Amino acid sequence: MAQTIETTPHIGPSPVGNKTFVSKWSSRYRGATVQDLEPPSALSLNPTDPISLALLSAFERDYTHLTIVDASTRALLGYIAIPTLQAQLDAGRVRPADPLSQAMARFERRGKKYRVITMATPLEELEEFFEGGGAGAGAGQKQEFAVVTDEDRRFVLGVATRADLEEFVKRRPA
């Protein structure tokens, strides 16, 4: 016999404007975490790699965002959003032979605290992050992707996108 479980939307703290974040899909998450999204392994490039390598790598893997790491320390420096990169190429601001450092978006480390997204982060928190809720840099701004790291932020494990979350919700029955 099937049992019906009634759920209510996730209501959690959000310091943004003292508003409480209400998840529109919490009934479908049912305790799922970022790991349940099965994000593909991150593809990290170096700032000195050519733009053409980023385009080719992203196209081969159907990625929309690539992380940029320091060649020697592997520290996360920034990212490349492929649609933005393509627009820069089309406008003539960069060329395929140019290094990624000329087109990448850099993470500002000084004076900013970033929200750590790990494989164990509940999907309600990831949704809140995408909607611009929570603390840290980017609070109040909608985000299209999240860099998934280990708890200590030493390793980039993957990239989760808003589209990944939406696809997960479509696959899960209400």
Helix content: 10-25%
Query: Which range does the strand content fall in?
Result: 15-25%
Gross geometry: globular
Describe the biggest sheet? 4 strands, mixed
Order of helices and strands: EEHEHEEHEHEEH
CA-atom Rg in angstroms = 18 Å
Give the averaged pLDDT, no decimals.
82
Structural class: alpha+beta
**Total helical elements:** 5
Question: Can you give a write-up of this model?
Answer:
This protein is of the alpha+beta class and about 170 residues long. About 25% of the residues lie in helices and about 15% in strands. The protein has helices at about 25-30, 50-60, 80-90, 125-130, 160-170; strands spanning about 10, 20, 45, 65-70, 75-80, 105, 145-150, 155-160. The strands form three sheets. The chain has a four-stranded mixed sheet. A hairpin with a 6-residue loop joins strand 4 and strand 5. The relative contact order is 0.21.
Write the layout of secondary structure elements.
Layout: E1 11-12, E2 21-22, H1 26-29, E3 44-45, H2 51-61, E4 65-69, E5 76-81, H3 82-90, E6 105-106, H4 123-130, E7 145-149, E8 156-161, H5 162-171
